[in-house]
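Incident review: delayed structure delivery

Summary: a single-chain prediction request sat in the queue longer than the usual turnaround. Root cause was a stuck worker, restarted by the on-call engineer. No data loss occurred. The affected request and its eventual output are reproduced below so the record is complete for anyone auditing the incident later.

Affected input:
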Amino acid sequence: MRGNRILFVGGNEDAESLRGEGTRYFHAGGRTVLPGFIDSHYHLLMGSAEMGNAALEGVNSLEELGEVLRTHAQEHPEAAWVCGSHLKYDLLPDGRRLSRHDLDAILADRPVAVMAYDYHTLWRIRWPWSWQASCEAAPAVRTVRS
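Output delivered after worker restart:
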């Protein structure tokens, strides 16, 4: 950092080459250090947890949503759920909102969950599932505080 600018992003060895006489140094003990992003509504954990989801940013119709989710399901047969992220709200014509019935019609044989682009809405299909079994099959997300 110099002032309020990030000068370098990379590994320790490359960073050492930038270390000079006036460089303030501290050892983070193997922890990740991030600049102080000041955003009271930042979804860092959600953004990283969804990296394996179907990308829905460019989806503009129910038909396109179906294509993307079915393709994702075929490419990830081992996944307990077919998940998609970043869906826009105005996907359907005439102001109609997406429903679980729309998702049931797209992919009836696998559980589906679709997150809106702002992370404030989640649509999922009705599925005969056990909450406990579903949680046990889901990948673990752990928050570490020190």
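Verification: Residues 64 and 142 are 33 Å apart (CA to CA).
Action items: add queue-age alerting; document worker restart procedure.
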